[in-house]
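Hi L.,

You mentioned the student needs an example of a multi-chain input paired with its predicted structure. This one should do, with 681 residues in total across all chains.
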Amino acid sequence: MSDFLFAPQTQQTMTQIIEIKNLQKTYKGNVNPSVDGLSLSVEEGEIFGLLGPNGAGKTTTIRILCGLVTPDSGDVTVCGYSIKNEMDKIKPLIGVVPQDFALYPSLTAVENLKIFGGIYNIPKKVLMPKIDSLLEIFGLTTSQDRTIEKYSGGMKRRVNLIAGLLHNPRILFLDEPTVGIDVQSRHVIIENLKRINQEGTIMIYTSHHLDEAEHFCTSIALVDDGRIICKGTPKTLIEEAGAKNLEELFLQKTGKKLRD
Amino acid sequence: MRRFKALLYKDILLLIRDLPGLAMMFIMPLALVILMTYLQDSTFNSITENKIPLLLLDEDQDSLGISIERSIRQSHIFNVDTTLKEERLTASSLEKAVAKGDYQIGIVIPKNTTENIRQSIRQSVLKTFGSDSASTAIEMDSIAIFVDPTTKNSFKSTIISSIQEYAAKLQTGFVLREVSIEVKRLLPIPMGEIEISEDMIGIKEQYARLDQGRLIPNSVQHNVPAWGMFAVFFIVISLAGSIIKEREDGSFTRLMTMPCPYWLYLMGKAGVYLMVCLLQLLLMFLMGIYILPMLGLPALEMGHCYGAIILMSISSSLAAIGYGIAIGKIATSNQQSAIFGSISVVIMAAIGGVWIPVFVMPNIMQTLSKISPLNWGLSGYYDIFVRDGDLLSVLPESGTLLVFAILCVVTAIVYDRKKRR
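Structure written out for the whole complex:
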């Protein structure tokens, strides 16, 4: 039976989709932990922004949630499954849009998407119409047979996003999905992500575009030194801190010292 | 299955789009096999086909002399001369020619040797049957063999055995004939001739080994499998390169966030590169059978066990794929893998006897060659092509190659798990 057809619907009654308790990770050779006792939960329907300066522990947290890195300790469940021993059940439910394009440059957009769709075990007769429809939504139909290496940065970002959406994921991890692209591409991406979220996909989002995050996220957590500094809706957090916007709140909470 | 098909589709597309890589994998080894076979053909001929010069003076001109000459010629080991250019061939001129080094072996079969044997046996038989007509013993001249000091013992043994064998046969024939004459004379009832079959003792033919128990292939039998192995192992550069490229462009990370276990990812790669390796070997063999003879070289004789060829081809390919996977996983950059991959394959090829066959290497290098996977593969193909070996005969080599492949893949998997921690 296809994972694509059935797995995403199995946990729809849950409210807490992701639950992280006391997550700890120190990379080999490092003294300081990248993630230091981080705890949070993400609920049904949220667009959750994980924000913080460079080296705060956002990417490590997302890599742990995606099964790319093994944590030292802590409990993490995704859609009710533990990342410790049920990653094979979690993977069909998540979509990942990495900051790197993570596409095969010498292949066309359609070829790339056919490969990723096949790995998600999507039957061909479902996959091909899905690819066509997503390419159309993201304005790539006319260039679908060009190799990725000939695409502009914005076009690559859009294909990168489509690759994470092919299997209608329950949760979508977005690592800087709009970095380095023009306003038009960013607009198309954000608008479509909002629509997809309304259709039921939970999103975990990281970005340094704080203005974008303020308007896009339904709730955020500010992370620094591997710990959560504050968590809530952008509006509440800004009001509570007496800041003008998310950027001011961010600087208040994480300081103005340069980070590498 | 859909996942595996998608991974195969990916790796086939990546391979097809890499035209320089494809050219390197297919055109380079085919060009090398033609060039090297052509260059080495005369060298191999000097090892395998140069016959030992032998000078024969047959003063007997009877059964024994004729039999000995025929057997020496039929051995295909000796180049037999029965005359000298500058002077008449005599026992002393023959000895002088061998002493000068013009010939490695000289044989003199004295006049009346056959007749003397015949007479001697007749006298012995008559004496045994108590005949009064038995006369005194006949004096026999020995067959003289002159040997150059550099002649290998194996060749001397071959000659002496041949002569002894034919002398013994001749004597037996004469004994039987004389005995049957005497028996007929004594018995009142008629009797037929005594006949003894020459095939009473069955001889199972084994591979002839002239020296140190080795068999020497011709240039095609060596170069086709040797460069085939080189080609198969040269895919390491392309395979490791594709693994590293996927890691560098982030697509590997994406795959690992998908329902795609690492072992399945490796299976996809192995499946495609196995097809590449088998195609490379097939092209090499076809070239050995059809193209090389057009260039005046011997055609590749592949033995008779196609199952053994398939087993060797698959196990060699898997060993190369395993090695490529290990390099691709451990190397930190494409440059590093290309340099390490190519140099290590070239070294393994050199040690393993791809360029210079192991049997002409010094003893220490012959021992060292056994650590090279290319040598294991080459030895397996020698077993099939030169010794006409079967499945059982290539099991040690193919088993070693498969163990090597498994060790490499296990190393890659362990390294991958360690990296994720």
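You could point out the following to them. The longest strand of chain B covers residues 52-58. The interface with chain A takes residues 2-3, 5-7, 9-10, 13-14, 17-18, 246, 249-251, 253-261, 420-421 of chain B (CB under 8 Å).

Best wishes,
N.
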